[in-house]
């Protein structure tokens, strides 16, 4: 038997003062009502009613238990209604995990716009370049730049990151010529340490021919922003997303090297828990990001 159903039945018997009246009210047999109340009394370990042939009266423990059940079931009904309501409206708190480089450059604007559309929503952003467990960390959505391995999560594609090779003009004037991928072995390279093969760069030319080069790592970091800063200061060559280096290319802090090649393109995903009942805030924000980046990176 279900304890909560029996508690609801107990409340109805107490309100009507009769097993028979409760049975008629709930379209049950009197025997069924008696059995469920007896099961509940056995489960909780004390009697709820004084019984006689005409009526039932609450015991002292029954009176206190009635107050408890009233409060418990009211709170349960309220909580279920509130949580169910969150499935249908954009409200509550949305928790995000995003890579550091993206946090302000790419995500601040759509997050701001989404919050303006939904003033009853609050957003908590965790900036982290490492993969996080969405369940353990209570994260609703993680934005990830990688080819996703099989997991218990779901994912929506956002856009492809096209990575460019860049270095400062000062660095390039003092180093060996760089005309083909193999020439990278003669240069200082700045590596993203979270990459599966950080010291092996895969370059694709305009004809989709792929070259793999084992580079010399002069500096490595799990922060793309740190790699960008070190490249600007002349420490070597690095591969970073085009959207991240465009301002530095425009003001000539950096120059693109091997322009006929691009580093491996990595897809961007919004990753979320594989639950059938996603709150509307999660579904709506993912839909918003998909539409936002489809427009921003449209060919």
Mean pLDDT: 88
**Structural class, please?**
alpha/beta
- Strands, total number: 13
Unreliable runs: none
Q: How much of the residues is beta strand, in percent?
A: 25-35%
**SSE string, helices as H and strands as E:** HHHEEHEHHEEEHEEEEHEHEEH
Please estimate the helix content. Answer: 40-55%
Supply the number of helical segments.
10
Distance between the termini: 61 Å
Largest sheet: 11 strands, mixed
Overall spatial form:
rod-shaped
Question: Rounded to an integer, what's the Rg over CA atoms?
Answer: 31 Å
Keywords, please?
two-stranded antiparallel sheet, 299 residues, alpha/beta, 13 strands, 11-stranded mixed beta sheet, 10 helices
Describe this entry's structure for a reader:
This protein has 299 residues and is of the alpha/beta class. Strand 1 (49-51) and strand 2 (56-58) form a beta hairpin. The strands form 2 sheets. Strands 3, 4, 5, 6, 7, 8, 9, 10, 11, 12 and 13 form an 11-stranded mixed sheet that branches. A two-stranded antiparallel sheet has the order 1-2. The longest helix is centred in the first third of the chain and has 27 residues, at 60-86. It is built from 10 helices and 13 strands. Helix 1 (3-16) crosses helix 4 (60-86) and helix 2 crosses helix 3 (30-44). The protein has helices at residues 3-16, 19-26, 30-44, 60-86, 100-105, 108-117, 169-173, 224-232, 242-250, 280-296, and strands at 49-51, 56-58, 92-98, 121-127, 141-145, 153-167, 188-192, 200-205, 210-214, 216-221, 237-241, 255-256, 261-273.
């Amino acid at each position: 038997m279900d304890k909560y159903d029996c508690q609801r039945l107990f409340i109805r018997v107490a309100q009507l003062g009769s097993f028979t009246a409760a049975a008629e009210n709930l379209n049950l047999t009197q025997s069924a009502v008696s059995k469920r109340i007896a099961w509940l009394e056995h489960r909780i370990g004390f009697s709820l009613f004084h019984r006689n042939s005409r009526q039932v009266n609450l015991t002292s423990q029954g009176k206190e238990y009635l107050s408890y059940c009233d409060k418990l079931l009211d709170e349960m009904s309220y909580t279920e209604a509130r949580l169910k309501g969150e499935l249908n409206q954009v409200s509550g708190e949305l928790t995000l995990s995003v890579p550091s480089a993206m946090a302000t450059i790419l995500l601040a604007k759509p997050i701001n716009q989404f919050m303006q559309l939904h003033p009853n929503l609050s957003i908590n952003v965790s900036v982290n370049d490492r993969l996080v467990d969405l369940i353990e960390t209570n994260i609703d959505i993680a934005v990830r730049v990688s080819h996703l391995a099989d997991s218990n999560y779901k994912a929506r594609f956002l856009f492809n990151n096209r990575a460019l090779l860049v270095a400062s003009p000062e660095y390039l004037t003092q180093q060996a010529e760089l005309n083909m991928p193999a020439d990278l072995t003669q240069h200082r390279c700045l590596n993203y340490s979270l990459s599966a093969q950080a010291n092996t760069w895969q370059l694709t030319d305009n004809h989709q021919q792929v070259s793999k080069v084992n580079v010399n790592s002069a500096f490595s970091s799990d922060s793309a922003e740190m790699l960008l800063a070190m490249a600007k200061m002349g420490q070597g060559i690095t591969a970073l997303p085009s959207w991240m280096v465009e301002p530095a290319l425009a003001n000539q802090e950096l120059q693109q090297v091997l322009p006929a090649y691009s580093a491996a393109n990595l897809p961007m995903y919004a990753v979320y828990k594989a639950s059938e009942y996603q709150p509307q805030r999660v579904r709506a924000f993912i839909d918003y990001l998909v539409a936002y980046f489809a427009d921003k990176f449209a060919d």
